[in-house]
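The passage that follows is intended for readers who have already worked through the single-chain material. We present the inputs for a multi-component assembly, then the predicted structure in tokenized form, and finally a short commentary. You are encouraged to pause after the input and sketch how you expect the pieces to fit together before reading on.
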Amino acid sequence: MKDDRDRWERTLSDLPLGSGGFGTPTIKKVKERIKMLERRARRRRRAAAASVVALLIAGAVVFRGELTELFTHEEAAKPVISDAETTTLNIMYWDNGGFMSLYGQPFIIRHPSVRFEYSEYPGKSANLLNLTPGIDTFKAQLQKSQADLVQVPLAYLPELSAAGLLKPLDTWMKRDNVSDDSWQTAVKNTVREAGGGGLYGFAPEFTGFALYYNRKLFRENGVPEPTDGMTWAEVMNLAARFEGLKKNEKPVYGVSFGYNSAIWFEANLIGSSQGLRLADAKLKEATVDTPAWTTLWTKLAAGHREGWISNEPALKWEGSVEMKELYAHDPFLNGRSAMTYASSSYLNNISQAGSAMGLGEQDWGVLSPPTDEGARGTDGAFEVPFVFAIPEKSPHADAAWELLKYIMSPSQANRLVRFPHGDSLPTVAADAAADDARSSVFYRAAVDPSRALDAAARNSDPAYKSVAGVVWTEANDRTQNLDDGELDVPALLKALQAKAEQAIRAASAGGQAKTEATP
Amino acid sequence: MDALDHDYLKHMTGGVDRDAVLEELMLTYGRDVWNYAFFMTGKRETAEDIAQDVFIKAYQSLHTLRGESGARAWLLKITRNTALDHFKSAWYRRIRLPAVMPVRESQMSAENEWLGSYRQREIWRTVMELPRKLRESLLLQAHHGLSMAEIAELLQVSEGTVKSRIHRARAAMNKKFEHGREDDEEGSGRA
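Having made your guess, compare it with the prediction:
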């Protein structure tokens, strides 16, 4: 009997009445009606409008004063964010306008007495892809600022939390009964690992990778479909079974990598997911000409030579390019590639363009990403770009915690899904994701937190980034004009190794080489 | 400190304009408003009309919105008043009376599809058949997650009345689903 009761109550609480209710068309109609009403009102009462507004304002002021007196009792506990007093929160985020539209505005709806001001984000050229000016620069700026909430690159979290510069959040979580049950588990574990077991920040978003596959192509060609948790070697072998196939006189590929792929880009993408490095942790030795890199490059070269990896000509960028042109260059979206390895944002590409271009809604599936034998089923390219943290010396830490609680809330996750602003997914699964089996693959991803932290540290190290920049530029130059089958992998890796060594020496001379091992 | 400093009018001159505030309100609470209107009226088209009216009224009286827990409670209150006005209208009374006549099959199918699985449809159908006052109190608690005090404030009745309504609503639902289960068991036994 209890079960039956639980069941009907759960239905009422958990399941909204379908998605057919309030949506974009209603929002549009409200706006149209308001515009119409305002036009009419302007025509009729243009002259009177000013005095009416003045009266309303005066009325609101008078009324508010009365209410404040009525309801303010001296003995009443003062709320963290008072309705009666302005609370100004200082934010350190790479883009002030972006913060306001993503987090500030919805928070003000809930707390109209809150104002925001901003501290300068460290580093002169901060952007979404480059939030890491170096730990020393970041630390100095953090100590100098009066910020209440800061955006901290994940890679810096271990050092900043160990140095006592950030507030631990566990006590607050417990006090306010804030549960982390709905957070993506890998994000939760990685952020805790960065804080040495304690929680020092909340990561609102993450990027996961997956293997997307075209069921129809597999069935049509009698090839067994891929399965969850395959290795890269298995995926490549499966892809090779599509060698020489055609569809409507055009080649069909076993695997492709988006609309504008190149072999060096593929080596970079897959190598990152396997944890392959271009230099050792101390940044003393180049590690480009190694057996692991050789195996990867050799397999990619074979795939391009034999035609089971997409060899579509690169898109010529001339002026502005529309998304539909990009989609037209993607063999997977066109139904001519059996598999593609891509991030969570690719779900949007498929939903926007797939059906129109030859990939029917029921034709495709998504699986956990390929990796190495020893790490089956884990996402080696999983990334948590940053966390929001509260500095230890925040002047308004309690109010900042209220803001952070809002940022962690399911309603904010739903908002991020309605207005996607990059490749990432919200850490708290939005309602839409909970109902969607395909995006759920990213919410059940398994990740090795220490490997994710290691990759974050490497990618945020300016010296390592300079070496990587040199190596991949050289790889691009040496491979972009090759005809199929011409690539001499040993010669290429020898040349890239030499370039990497040269870049390490330059970084060392510039004082950037590490004196201690990177964790 | 100047009282004006704390209200939306100040924000409208301080960088957050009125349209942006409306947009946020719709995105954040649109579904709450729409669902509450549906719970009150039981009709999708009417819920849609009421939801639109609510946000137009909200836009026109943003200056009365106060902070913290205010926004949602404020919108639900406007929703309730708008729905009650709707009930009072001659138009509603005229169309409501024939509503006891059988609903067309095609209309049923569309609603059924929209409300999800058979079991979910049964639950929602049962709750929508409760008397409005019981249904409203139950859903404000079970769906919107309001506390007894918040429901009492919204409905302008005592907390005791709210408790009594929710108790009666639960009893009716439990009775239905206990019976429903017995029927199912008997049915499967016969099969």
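Commentary: Residues 243 and 433 of chain A are 36 Å apart (CA to CA). The first helix of chain A runs from residue 2 to 14. How closely did your sketch match?
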